[in-house]
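job 3f2a | input accepted
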Amino acid sequence: MKNIRNKQAQEKDEFPVGKKGFAVCSGCDAVYHKKSWHHEEKFADKIEGIRKEAGSVICPACEREKNDLCEGFVVLIDIPEEKMQEVFNLIQNVGEKAIKNDILSRITKMEERDGDIYICTTENQLAVSLGKQIQKAFKGEVDTNWSGRDGIARVTWRYPAPKHGK
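job 3f2a | predicted structure (166 res):
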């Protein structure tokens, strides 16, 4: 997983200067119109015509996924085996909600290794949201670090240690 070059390059990718009309992403069917990307449902009755007229492109989120670029990294540490599926379900729900709100906000990679989960996101805000939602549901400690120049969010959350005693 690689960092995105910098925030200005990312914004230029999301909102190409001078790009007018429509375009359709060949990866996810997102539609580019009026300098932003939209869900295809908004243009369902026009999408085939748009595709024929404007052709296909690759949206920034699909491009990032293809090139293994991330704006947000999340590491969830020391998850007990009996909680793993519950954590995965919450991650999936947060990811689905994010993409409904913003077609470019996605979880592009997720893998489990030795009780830890590693996640890559296309947007730094999604990484931060994942950390907050996991902490809200399971407690524990969350730490967010920012790479000032690149706007990369690195979120680490640790499952709470079991309480001993009483």
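job 3f2a | The two ends are 44 Å apart (CA to CA).
job 3f2a | closed
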